[in-house]
Every structure is written in structure tokens, then in C-alpha cells.
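[Discussion] Sanity-checking designs against the backbone

I'm trying to build intuition for which residues belong where. Below is a C-alpha cell string of 334 positions. I'd appreciate it if someone posts a full sequence so I can compare it with mine line by line.
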């Protein structure tokens, strides 16, 4: 059966989704087509240090000469733990490379030009919109040179993150909390401010509804200069705890250089406001409970916004009901 480039790219995106979402590398899929448009091999990237999607697909054919490689991301141009894919495709003798979206990583981009310079036909942008949506988080992190930051908080219907005495566990019910634990497990890092550590003594593990640890645990990061008290629950976290203080942009740059591409911040209001005011949040996940608390403990401290016109308008992604609560997801437009 003849497979169109759109069909092959759709399949490559399915294959890409099999790879891990966490870690430094993108999820990439690759399909090899022969002259007749028949799929002859498939590949995907299974995580840092393993072959890239193109190399994985090429390893499954004895002769790739004349084939078309359909790849979800521009083939990389740099030698990391594995060789550059642009070179691998050239050496293998493919006659055409079709890809969905460019690689914004300064060290990896330029693969398309290298392939073109070798006289191989290159087509860019097939299902580009779908591929960018699929890879939104990784592409944003690569473009900004810092982890993709998701800010999460739980608030009462009147926008409070705690009662007057500082208690906030739990504002939302178990259904929303289970969902949030899945989001924790979908990130490289989880962060809170020292104020939250001192007030709530969180463990910051990602758990299922029965309290069992999920397979991936994000690395906890505590931001601030105050010491974490001896005996804090965080010290029992399976990954240990990292502390950071100083300029938030510098901290994010450092974490990115260590290979982290996603950070989930769970408060509190002081740290949240600092991240937002510094333009360092990409996505918001806000759990709203039908509960009224009143009082001064707002979910986000002052952002220095004096008038409505200066408010930050976000793009609504979803609003889902979990038990008695609503979880709203919105994104910044940058
Ligand atoms: N409902 C929710 O989702 C939720 C979530 C978390 C917390 N809470 C509640 O929030 C309250 C704690 O709030 P909080 O505001 O005190 O805690 P916080 O925002 O977790 O911590 C504030 C601390 O973060 C540190 N920090 C690091 N970088 C910073 C920066 N660039 N700018 C400002 N601060 C920075 C500072 O620590 P140093 O002073 O040590 O330098 C600061 O004092 C508790 O009542 C807790 O229950 C609610």
C-alpha cells in the first residue's frame, strides 16, 4: 500500500510517543519508505545514550540506498553520546529526508542543510503543526535554553492557597491530587520554596491513588536560603533533595545545562509570584475547589500589575472536572 508523507509522519509521531517524555532528549520517530511508498522500517528514540530514531530505523534495513526517511524532528547535526543523524542518513544513501519541524538547539540544528549539501532532497514542514504541538514542551525548553516551567497550585473558589493559619492540606480532593501526582511524574524536576517546606513538610514524591511510588520520580529542588529542618520528609525522597538559591534565571540555566528539560513548581505564593514576574512560567495548572476561605493567603503574591490592561492573559488549554474540583490548564503565549 502506498503511504503518503502525511501518513508516514503520523506514524512517526506515534512511534515518537513511545519514547520517554522526561530527560534531556526529544521524543523522535522515524519511518523509512521505499520508492513505492511502502514502509520498510520504523524507529524511535528510547532515551539518552540510546540510538536516535533515524539510526534505530536504519539499523533495521540491510540497504537504505534510495529510501525516503520521514522524521518528526530535523535530523541532528552534532555528535553527542551517539553520532550525528544527518551524517548517518547521508552515509546510508537515502535519497530523500522529510521532516516535520526544525530543531532549535544551537548545537544540533543545521542537519537539514548538511543533508541538502550532500545532494539529498529535503522536505520540511510535513505535519509541522502536529509535531510542534506534540513536542511543545521540549521545543520551548530548547528554544529558551531553560526547562519548561509548569506552575501548579490548588486554590479555593475565592483564590486562596491556604487558610489564615497557613494550613492548605488539602484544599482539593483525592481525584485532583492523583492527577497532579501523574503530572509530577511527567517532569524532570519538582520545586517548592523554603516557605512551603517549613509550613507543609511535603515529601514531593509522585504517588498513585494508593500511595505507591510511580516509576518516575522527579528530582526535588528547594529554592531559598533557609535551611531544610533535619527530619524533613524531603530527606526520605528516593532521589534526595537539591537546594538552590539566587537568581531564578541563572538557576534554570544551570538545571538546563545538567540535562533537565521540565520543572513542575508547586508553590508557594511567594515563589510563584517571583517566577511569574520574571516571565519564567510557560504553563499553569490550577486546581480550584468549591471552597471559600477568604483572608490574606492568596494563591499568588503581588505581581506588580497596577491596572487590568497589564494583566497576563493566558491561552486556556483545558478545564476538567476531577471529583468535586476543577483543574484548569493555561499557557503563556511566548
Ligand atoms: N495551595 C497550594 O497549592 C500551596 C502550595 C504550596 C504552599 N502553599 C501554602 O503557602 C504557604 C507558604 O507560602 P510562602 O510564600 O511562605 O512559601 P514559598 O513561596 O514556598 O517560599 C517562599 C520562599 O522562597 C524562597 N525563594 C527562592 N527564590 C525566591 C525568589 N526569587 N523570590 C522570592 N522567594 C524566593 C525564599 O526563601 P528564603 O527566604 O529561604 O531565601 C522565600 O522566602 C503555606 O501556608 C503553604 O501551606 C499552598
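Best answer:
Here's mine. Compare freely.
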Amino acid at each position: 500500500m502506498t503511504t503518503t508523507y502525511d501518513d508516514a509522519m503520523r506514524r512517526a509521531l506515534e512511534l515518537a510517543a513511545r519514547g520517554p517524555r522526561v530527560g534531556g532528549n526529544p521524543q523522535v520517530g522515524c519511518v523509512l519508505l521505499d520508492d513505492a511508498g511502502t514502509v520498510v522500517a520504523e524507529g524511535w528514540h528510547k532515551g539518552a545514550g540510546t540510538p536516535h530514531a533515524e539510526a534505530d530505523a536504519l539499523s533495521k534495513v540491510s540497504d537504505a540506498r534510495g529510501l525516503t526517511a520521514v522524521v518528526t524532528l530535523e535530523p541532528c547535526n552534532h555528535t553527542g553520546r551517539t553520532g550525528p543523524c544527518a551524517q548517518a542518513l547521508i552515509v546510508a544513501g537515502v535519497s530523500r529526508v522529510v521532516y516535520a519541524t526544525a530543531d532549535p538547539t544551537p548545537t544540533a540544528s543545521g542537519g537539514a542543510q548538511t543533508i541538502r549539501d550532500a545532494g539529498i532532497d529535503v522536505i520540511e514542514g510535513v505535519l509541522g503543526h502536529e509535531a510542534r504541538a506534540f513536542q511543545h514542551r521540549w521545543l520551548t525548553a530548547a528554544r529558551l535554553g531553560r526547562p519548561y516551567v509548569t506552575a501548579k497550585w490548588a486554590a479555593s473558589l475565592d483564590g486562596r492557597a491556604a487558610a489564615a493559619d497557613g494550613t492548605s492540606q488539602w484544599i482539593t480532593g483525592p481525584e485532583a491530587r492523583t492527577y497532579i501526582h501523574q503530572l509530577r511524574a511527567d517532569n524532570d524536576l519538582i520545586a517548592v520554596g523554603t516557605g512551603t517546606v517549613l509550613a507543609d513538610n511535603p515529601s514531593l514524591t509522585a504517588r498513585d491513588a494508593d500511595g505507591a511510588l510511580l516509576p518516575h520520580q522527579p528530582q526535588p529542588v528547594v529554592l531559598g536560603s533557609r535551611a531544610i529542618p533535619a527530619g524533613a520528609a524531603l530527606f526520605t525522597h528516593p532521589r534526595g533533595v537539591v537546594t538552590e538559591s539566587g537568581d531564578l534565571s541563572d538557576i534554570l540555566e544551570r538545571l538546563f545545562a545538567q540535562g533537565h528539560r521540565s520543572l513542575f513548581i508547586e508553590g508557594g505564593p511567594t515563589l510563584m509570584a517571583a517566577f511569574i514576574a520574571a516571565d519564567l512560567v510557560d504553563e499553569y495548572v490550577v486546581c480550584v475547589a468549591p471552597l471559600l476561605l477568604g483572608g490574606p493567603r492568596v494563591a499568588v503574591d503581588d505581581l506588580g500589575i497596577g491596572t487590568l490592561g497589564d494583566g497576563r492573559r493566558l491561552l486556556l488549554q483545558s478545564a476538567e472536572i476531577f471529583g468535586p474540583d476543577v483543574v484548569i490548564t493555561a499557557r503563556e503565549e511566548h
